[in-house]
Model the fold of this input.
Amino acid sequence: MTREEIVEAIKDIIATIAPDEDLSNLKHDVRLRDQIALDSMDFLDIVMELRKRYGVQVPEEDYKELATMDGCVNYLYPQLSTKQLKVGV
Amino acid sequence: MSTERQDVIVIGAGMSGLAAAIRLAQFDQRVLVLEQHALPGGLNSFYKRRGRRLDTGLHAMTNFARKGARDAPLTKILRQLRIGHDELALGEQGHSRITLAGLSVRFSNDIALLCAEIEREFPGERDAFARLLECVRSHDPFRPAASFVSARAQLVALGLGPELAEVLLLPILSYGSALEQDAEWNDFVILFRSLFLEGFARPEGGIKRLLDILVARLSERGGVLRRNSTVAAILSGPDGVRGVRLEDGTEIECTHVLSSAGRVETARLAGLPVRTEESGWVTLFEALWILKRPSRELGCMETVHFCCDEPRVPWREPEGRIEPSIGIFCASDNYATQEPPVEGMLRATAIANHDRWCEIDEEAYPIAKRAACDHLADMSARLGLDPRPHAIDSDSFTPRTIRRYTGHARGAVYGSPHKYRDGATPIPRLILIGNDQGLVGITGALLSGITMANLHLLHARAT
Done:
């Protein structure tokens, strides 16, 4: 996956978890929680979806790295660059 | 011996069991739900009678929230189960009413109506009610209290007069307190929010719509619902649970068992010491009448009408077969619907005494049912609608019916007065879900299944 595809992968996961949220104007450098209503239960679902779809493990101490979209891409790129994008699963 | 193996077996396809199973199947657990009946739903199921589909328990879904409402419990639950708000097709109540010993206030899904009604009926209580609202909004009811805090005592401490306190307690105790004469303050706050700050709605077409969605989600995720499968025993060894045995002798192995059968019933299945006094006491008698015209046309404007003839709500196991002073009346057709209703439906509920209904013989049973129906019809007549002259069909059920269909000891509908909040049992990986674990009602039971699946299986793996 490219960095753009990782953005798409994250957006697809969020769209699955929170189908009623509008994701078209997400700013990449602003905390996700400040732009859409995500609580800690939703956040854990994002982590679990990452593992389910891509086999990525995110230890609890690294959750803070996933606060913004830019943070997600930077943190996940080393693990996801060799994986194929899966959307709509 | 069968060698069938699952990751998780869920006992009971009620709201908590289906919700837990959907969560687990979502994250690739092999999950099997065993339901003793042909239909799912447990306490909230439905049946066919002369061509009509009737719900067994549904007066109202509490916790109404509009699509996308932030931080609303309903939004959280729908997300966790990946259900779109539109799928439920929720119709909101018009308004409901509380009538207690001559006092009467209306409320709706807009708290402003209740505030205005309280100002009218209790002009001196305006500030006390404002303090209560502030307290209910700011309190965190999910943080366990260090010791028991009585809702009745807390209302006195906030300065509410006894009459207003009882008016508020009537629907709150009726819709979810497993304690006698009181509720835990945390539960009061949760129920106050879910009834008065959020409100009532009904899925278009009744409970079947929600059950169909849950069953479909489960199977889309690869979970399996097996109907007509009664668990005879929960099998365990020194390391914990290892499976279940069905009534037909089939054994199924698994790593975890999530049981919605109830604390006492689960103990019995697992061969643990059983203390029947732990089972709940709240059980119900319910009468329902199909009316030839919509309730509104017959003069009944309320969606739910909570009525109590006594100045202090006698929330305890009645001496006789039913508690004569409390009646809860729901005009199921007084929810907003896409198609206007062509006929009406009135459900009337009384709290009941399980043992009184069980000690009468088969000859006396239908007579006792008719007497209880007539008592509730008389009460409804005093509130403005006697259903009997307008009825084209009627039915009723008792604690005996509830026990037979749910398997819950004594026909308990709100679970044990003592909740097992962490779902833990003496047997490792045997986990309680449902009314004895957590909150009651449709939304409460869904939340129970979700939180127990998350706590014991999913979040343990995520971190």
